[in-house]
């Protein structure tokens, strides 16, 4: 059986938040893609195969699967969290994230990675730690923060 070439409904550079009701996929141009096959994409591929289009679909490489799947979840969750509004939006975001962590903990038994690693409330970030023994005489000070978020830097 010859490989199927992607029709037109197979690649968006990052998934958008799920719509309230499934919208039809827009036609995508022929080309190369590295997109996870969602149920909606699978249905679109079936439709365009009926029109003679061919696509090539492959199983995930086990070595790449964690990164690819995590990126998919990130690309769904980040816009969803960003779409929340109101004074309590950070609290609601925290609840959603902790719900996901709780679900993961209940799904994966005995994972040292998820050992009670839900976020503390209210949502906060650790920005620095200062060891007074390393600064000699005087009051210890936190290092100066860079202008770019550390988590955003490609070096980390």
Question: Care to describe what's here?
Answer:
With about 160 residues, the chain is mostly helical. It has two domains: about 80 residues, no CATH class; about 55 residues, no CATH class. The protein has three helices and no strands. The relative contact order is 0.10.
User: Helix coverage percent of residues?
Assistant: 25-40%
Number of domains: 2
**Which residues sit in consecutive blocks of at least 5 with pLDDT less than 50?**
1-22
Q: So how many helices? A: 3
Mean of pLDDT: 78
Order of helices and strands: HHH
* Structural class by sheet pairing and helices: mainly alpha
* Strand count: 0
Computed over alpha carbons, the radius of gyration is 22 Å
Please state roughly what percent of the residues sit in beta strands, choosing from under 5%, 5-15%, 15-25%, 25-35%, 35-45% or over 45%.
under 5%
Q: Which of globular, elongated, flat, extended, rod-shaped describes the shape? A: elongated
How far apart, in Å, are the first and last alpha carbons? Answer: 44 Å
């Amino acid at each position: 059986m010859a490989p199927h070439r992607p029709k037109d409904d197979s690649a968006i550079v990052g998934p958008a938040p799920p719509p309230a009701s499934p919208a039809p996929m827009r036609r995508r141009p022929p080309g190369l893609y590295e997109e996870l096959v969602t149920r909606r994409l699978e249905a679109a591929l079936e439709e365009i195969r009926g029109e003679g289009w061919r696509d090539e679909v492959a199983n995930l490489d086990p070595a790449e699967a964690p990164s690819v799947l995590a990126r998919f979840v990130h690309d769904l969750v980040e816009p969803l969290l960003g779409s929340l509004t109101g004074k309590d939006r950070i609290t609601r975001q925290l609840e959603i994230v902790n719900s996901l962590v709780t679900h993961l903990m209940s799904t994966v038994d005995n994972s040292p990675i998820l050992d009670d690693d839900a976020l503390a409330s209210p949502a906060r970030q650790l920005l620095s730690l200062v060891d007074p023994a390393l600064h000699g005489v005087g009051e210890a000070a936190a290092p100066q923060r860079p202008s770019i978020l550390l988590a955003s830097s490609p070096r980390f």
